[in-house]
Specification:
By secondary structure, the chain is α/β, with parallel strands linked by helices. It has two domains: about 5-120 and about 375-389, Enolase-like, domain 1; about 125-360, Alpha-Beta Barrel (TIM Barrel). It has 13 helices and 13 strands.
């Protein structure tokens, strides 16, 4: 049989309409909006080979796709099993950019390898745990009768705990006041008791270091597990976060907004974080995120994987130093976002009701990512398509 080679890469863009959703006043975050409708877009990538094996991925964004187009011609004719070579060549090609496009190639390359060998990506990575403890990560606060008050966040925290979630993370309002945030931090803790892990992610909305200190001090009092991406440096200032760590007892979780292995290590060495964040879509695919997990392990730190995705289940199954699968963006009143964007033809789902009775999600055990995409549904909603040969 001839050597396995990539013959083409097909990339589609699909648009899906989600009911009862809108954007916060900044226009940057999804929120609950009764009667509203939000269009979201997702790319689909298929890496085709001369042996009829195809690697698949759905996700990414326009920035990643624009970067993918800069190096995609380079992968045509390459052996798709040489992921490390492709990863490093793409890094060099994208050295002037943030390298978001690497994940859109690397993730389907891992899917392809699993299909070739008839095993899951988890098995390729040396995975050993197949039930992942999960926390509920809320949608941003709204003013529309959903997560619109400290009491509403507290009530939803109780609901999530009763469903079985292992923890609960708050995403705050755009039009916050510090007093309301402090009240929310305490009311949620009072609602769920002392032993339930709580986190807060202002998503870089807090305006000043002083505001972050006040929120952090409330987290100290309420014994939160971590404070994440608090203020408007966009989550990248090692100096500022080192200063926060020196003043707060609550651990910080950073690095969602720095890209790739080297910058994550730089952030760790600069003592800017307690927990490390990684994302296969953002950080060079499974190849890059796995490197970040092992680098963090070398420093004795935990790495928390950002957001739900089949690739993240496969990845987390092989990482010792990771605590939770993040189920976002959940809300007490919106329909399950995954139900409206039902891109899977099998039983795979992410959403509020997608954990088992013990608060875990399962790692798919089929070949590759272990999921079957509904290509009829994806193509029905497709608005553009390009094939690279």
């Amino acid at each position: 049989m001839s050597e396995l080679k990539i013959t083409s890469v097909d990339v589609g863009l699909s648009a899906f309409k989600l009911p009862d959703l809108g954007l916060d006043p900044s226009g940057f975050s999804l929120i609950y909006e009764p009667g509203g409708e939000k269009t979201v877009k997702a790319f689909s990538v298929q890496i085709n080979t001369n042996q009829g094996i195809t690697g698949e991925f759905v996700g990414g964004d326009a920035v990643g796709f624009s970067q993918l187009k800069k190096f995609v011609d380079h992968v045509i004719g390459k052996n798709p099993l040489q992921r490390e070579l492709i990863y490093n060549d793409a890094k060099r090609c994208l050295r002037k950019f943030d390298k978001m496009g690497i994940g859109m190639i690397d993730i389907p390359l891992w899917d392809l390898a699993g299909k070739l060998y008839g095993c899951s990506v988890s098995e390729l990575l040396g995975g050993y745990r197949f039930k992942l403890p999960t926390y509920a990560s809320t949608m941003s606060g709204d003013r529309a009768g959903g997560l619109d008050s400290p009491e509403a966040f507290a009530d939803f925290a109780i609901q999530c705990k009763e469903i079985g979630y292992k923890g609960y993370k708050i995403h705050i309002w755009e039009d916050y006041t510090i007093s309301e945030l402090v009240d929310t931090i305490h009311k949620v803790r009072q609602a769920v008791g002392d032993d339930f892990p709580l986190m807060i992610d202002p998503a870089c909305k807090l305006r000043t270091f002083t505001e972050v200190l006040k929120i952090g001090q409330a987290c100290d009092e309420a014994k939160y597990l971590w404070l994440e991406d608090a203020y408007r440096d966009s989550g990248v200032s090692t100096t500022a976060h080192k200063m926060l760590r020196q003043r707060l007892r609550t651990p910080l979780l950073q690095t969602e907004h720095v890209r790739g292995l080297e910058e994550h290590v730089n952030f760790i060495v600069a003592e800017g974080t307690d927990f490390v964040r990684a994302d296969a879509e953002y950080d060079g695919g499974i190849t890059g995120a796995f490197k970040i997990a092992h680098a963090s392990e070398g420093f004795g730190l935990d790495v928390e994987i950002h957001g739900p995705h089949p690739a993240h289940r496969q990845l987390m199954s092989a990482i010792r130093n990771s605590n939770f699968y993040e189920m976002s963006l959940v809300h007490p009143k919106t329909p399950q976002i995954g139900r409206c964007m039902d891109i899977y033809a099998d039983g795979y789902r992410d959403g509020l009701d997608c954990i088992d009775k013990d608060g875990n999600v399962l790692v798919p055990n089929g070949p590759g990512m272990g999921v079957t995409y509904d290509w009829d549904f994806i193509r029905k909603h497709q608005i553009s398509f390009e094939s690279f040969t």
